[in-house]
Amino acid sequence: MTPEAVWDRKLGFLRRYLSDLGQYAALDDIARRREHYAIERLLQLLCECASDLGLQYLKRVGDTLPASYREIFKALEQHAELPPDLAAQLIAACGMRNVLTHLYDTIDLDRVVAAVDPAIALYGAYADWCAERRPAP
Fold it and tell me: Domain tally for the chain?
C-alpha cells in the first residue's frame, strides 16, 4: 500500500469514528449514559487512530518513532508544527483512553458523557491538520 493510500485509509477511519461519535452529541446526558460503552469505544478508537496518523507522519519525515501516545503528540508539536494546545488536548484525551482501555481506575461516566462534544471538536481539528499533511503521490 502506498504511503498516501495508508494515510487516506487512516484519515478515513478517523472521520468515520468522528461521524459515529457525532450521533451521540444529539443525546442528552441520560441517554449518553445508557450508551456509555459505545461512546467509550469510540473515544478509544479516535485516540488510537489519531496516534497511528501521527506515527505515519513521523515515519514519513524520518523522525524517531515515539513509544507512547504522549510522546507521539509531543513529537508532532516539536517537529511538525502541531499547535501546542492541540497537542496538549490530544495527550489528555489519550490519557482518558488509557483509563478506558486498561481500567487503571473506576471509569467516571460523567467524564465519558461530557467528553463527547469536546472529542468531536478536538479530533475534527486534528483531522483537518492531518488532511493538510497528506503525503504527495
Answer: 1
